[in-house]
Write a structure and sequence with these properties.
Shape: elongated
Strand order of the largest sheet: 5-13-12-6
Number of helices: 6
Largest sheet: 4 strands, antiparallel
Helix content: 25-40%
Radius of gyration: 25 Å
Strand content: 25-35%
Number of strands: 13
Order of helices and strands: HEEEHEHEHEEHEEHEEEE
């Protein structure tokens, strides 16, 4: 008996198997415990089907003339996570911290600050990587839960969607300065911000003004942000060797 097969159908079958088998890799992570000890969570390898090799296996079995069921172990290709546990093992200490007061904020403004803080919390910035506030937080929309609160525009305060999130960018900016990180892009408000010192604010506006920070420290940096007791906290974690140097900020 001579066997033939439909190559187009075979390709469709392999694509179906490919979708069923595919498993995405997962980056390693960092967990900061209550006592500020640092735990590295292992990365998880993924895998995908080696489609060409699998197709050749199927063809070989069909062409052999076998009449029983064909049972094959699909050949897999391992996918390494972009960020592994080994990459993060150098993170062993808090290198800078900044907190700003939220007690003056309305509930809606505090809500916006919390949403933006949650979007940033857990960010891992590898050496040489640039952090973009707008890219990380995304557009501030009603669908994402942002509410109307005062924003500073053209030197005046007016209601705006996502009002208050500049407190998050400003708090992060000051923490980055104290860690000695490179500021790629930053613009101050046109009026002083009440929640942070002069010259330490960083305004942001979707599609217009961004805060960009480059990790130039030689080690990965983990960003922790959260609200507690009407305060916003931004903590940066990296290697303890970075604490051997300090930075003093002078305002003019």
């Amino acid at each position: 008996i001579n066997f033939t097969y439909n190559d187009e159908y075979l390709n469709e079958f392999i694509q179906t198997v490919e979708k069923d088998i595919y498993k995405e890799s997962k980056d390693a992570g960092i967990v900061i415990k209550a006592d500020e000890t640092i735990e590295v969570i292992d990365d998880i390898k993924g895998y995908r089907l080696d489609a060409e090799k699998f197709k050749e296996q199927i063809k070989k079995e069909i062409e052999s003339g076998i009449t029983d069921d064909i049972v094959l172990e699909p050949p897999l290709i391992e996918i390494n996570a972009p960020i592994t546990a080994d990459d993060l093992n150098s993170i062993d200490s808090k290198i800078s911290s900044c907190n700003t007061d939220l007690s003056f904020s309305s509930d809606d403004r505090t809500h916006n600050v919390e949403l933006a803080a949650k979007a940033i919390n857990g960010t891992i910035l590898m050496d040489g990587e640039i952090f973009s506030f707008n890219e990380r937080v995304g557009e501030r929309t009603k669908e994402k839960g942002y509410k109307m609160a005062p924003v500073l525009e053209d030197g005046n305060y007016k209601p705006g969607l996502g009002g208050g999130i500049c407190q998050v960018s400003s708090t992060l900016y000051k923490a980055a300065l104290e860690a000695g990180m490179e500021i790629v892009e930053r613009k101050p408000h046109r009026l002083p911000a009440v929640y942070i010192g002069l010259g330490l604010d960083a305004t942001v506006s979707w599609g217009n003004i961004d805060l960009k920070i480059k990790n130039n420290l030689g080690y990965p940096v983990f960003i922790e942000t959260y609200l507690k007791d009407k305060n916003l906290y931004v903590n940066l974690y990296s290697n303890s060797k970075l604490k051997e140097r300090t930075y003093k900020i002078n305002n003019k």
